[in-house]
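Data availability (excerpt). The following record was deposited with the supplementary files.
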Amino acid sequence: MFSGARADAPAAAPRLMPVFFYREGGKGRYEVNLSYPQAASPGVGSLNKLLRQAAEADQRWKDGPDPDHESLGYDADYRIALQTESFISVVFTRLTVFGGPYPNNEQFTVNFDLKAGRAATLDNLLRPGAQAKTGKLCKAQLRKYYGEGSDEMITKEVVDGEVGKINNWVFEPDQIQIEFDIATHAMGAYACKLSGKTAAALLRPEGAVRLVTH
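Predicted structure:
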């Protein structure tokens, strides 16, 4: 984290140096603990702004005291999933405590095309038809994982909707993960995993992401 780079990051990849923010909580006041990276290299476009916004989320914790809760907390942490000369994928985990028995957990990914200098889009990363193919693959994984009786929850419309959100996609050196949080609280979230040639075949050959397939 302090080096700003994954062990496999090439020398030309922008370094992502950590920034930390902490604010003590109290009665009716959020305790805030943020960790997020900022690129130390020039020419990264809006990357730093997007990374900071991802850590801050909807900033409910900036609204001030809430008299209905004794204890409130907000925490954001990150990991660098992919870091190359052409692409950055940073995964944020965000936790909000509202005072109830269960915190609200989120995962949010910033995917950034360094070649274009802007946030990546699925249209720019995937081959034609690849998004629909991904929906079918993930739907099969979800139904197998959750078992019988999940058909009403895991519909084509729901799965395609989650697959269509690029902030659910995590690009790693040898695989792609798509995060789903469509189940009940007891069942929790699920990450659809696509690796090797299956994952590589989804990507445009001229696109910003390259995967290791061996």
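Summary of structural features: The mean pLDDT is 88.
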